[in-house]
Amino acid sequence: MLDRRQVLAMLGTTALATLAPTALLAAASIKPDDASALLVIDVQNCFLPGGSLAVKEGEQVVPVINKISRAFANVVMTQDWHTPGHISFASVHSGKKPFETVDLPYGKQVLWPDHCVQGTDGASLSKDLAIPHAELIIRKGFHKDVDSYSAFLEADGKTSTGLAGYLRGRKIKRVFVAGLATDFCVAWTALDARKAGFEVYVVEDACRGIDTQGSLAKAWADMAKAGVKRIQSADIASAQG
Length: 241
Hints:
By secondary structure, this protein is of the alpha/beta class. 27% of the residues lie in helices and 19% in strands. The protein has five helices and eight strands, in the order αβαββββαβαβαβ. The strands form two sheets. The protein has a six-stranded parallel beta sheet with strand order 5-2-1-6-7-8. The radius of gyration is 19 Å and the shape is globular. Residues 1-27 have low confidence and may be disordered. It comes from Bradyrhizobium ottawaense. Belongs to the isochorismatase family.
């Protein structure tokens, strides 16, 4: 019969075994190759300090993204690109406030302050991004009656942005996701990338979250369940130092 000391020793061994894959992943150096792409999600003025939907510490992702982007031959950027009076704006729903929800034909929709309206300064990418070799900008959320968090599919789960086809055409097999916000556009992009068959990494310190009603913890749990790998910028080989 096992005594308390033996039980604790076994539990400690089990815990180490559970943590080992994560620790090994963090310790290993990941070198992006020609089959790798960095997806820079929605680093736009509306989501930065002073913006209408500012993400706390959102500006801190910019230097990290600039640094890791130099390790990638392939970079795609995204922009929220909403029409005036978009269905996701609280202002178009009588009596509703930002961060409340409504039921729409495609499911439950979080209502947001007006943000990233087409052609406005708020919709512009941060002027501090320095990724001249980015080869594609995907605009999303431009259909007035459906929101779009993911870089791959709009919130109805069926309207494609065309990104998956582009990446396949470029023979990309793995994607690294960074940007804003972790618990919405980053997470939805990562999950849809997995559904599309890509190997997916989310660069945690190159992202920041909104975290409304436990959304950040749920997003990380959903991504882990889907096989998304959670890494830091220092894990990317040529981004170290």
